[in-house]
């Protein structure tokens, strides 16, 4: 994929996410109900696809996030971000602390409904 096509690809995905955010925030009740009935299933399917690609191998390492020299232990960044966004009790997690932040340290979020 050349650079221009890749940028167009990224922009299209971000535009779609912006559209969904705007519809969820500003849409009327009917629009939000339609959004929930269609987009939640698409988003959960997307998450499952991404997480499937980052399943640990037989050595407990993520094949997608591991490099040639260094194997990435599970949970990798993708699983950590999924856990933070799907399990956080009070909205979006704080910003990442850098690429060397330990994944296990970032798992300390409460499940929904916990208080
Ligand atoms: Zn991974």
Describe it for me?
The chain is mainly α and 115 residues long. It has 2 domains: 53 residues; 57 residues, no CATH class. The protein contains 3 helices and 2 strands; from the N terminus they run H-H-E-E-H. A two-stranded antiparallel sheet has the order 1-2. The longest helix is centred in the middle third of the chain and has 25 residues. The protein starts with a helix and ends in a 28-residue tail after the last helix. Bound molecules: zinc ion. Zinc ion binds next to loops.
Number of helices: 3
Identify the strand order in the major beta sheet.
Answer: 1-2
Distance N terminus to C terminus?
47 Å
Strand element count: 2
* Rounded Rg: 17 Å
What is the arithmetic mean of pLDDT? 82
Q: What small molecules does this complex bind?
A: zinc ion
Label the overall shape: extended
């Amino acid at each position: 994929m050349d650079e221009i096509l890749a940028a167009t690809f990224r922009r299209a995905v971000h535009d779609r996410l912006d559209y969904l955010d705007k519809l969820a925030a500003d849409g009327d009740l009917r629009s939000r109900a339609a959004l929930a009935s269609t987009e939640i299933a698409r988003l959960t399917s997307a998450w499952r696809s991404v997480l499937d690609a980052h399943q640990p191998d037989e050595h407990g390492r993520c094949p997608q996030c591991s490099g040639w020299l260094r194997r990435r232990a599970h949970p990798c960044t993708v699983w950590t971000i999924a856990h933070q966004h799907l399990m956080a009790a009070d909205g979006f997690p704080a910003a990442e602390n850098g690429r060397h932040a330990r994944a296990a340290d970032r798992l300390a979020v409460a499940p929904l409904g916990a208080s």
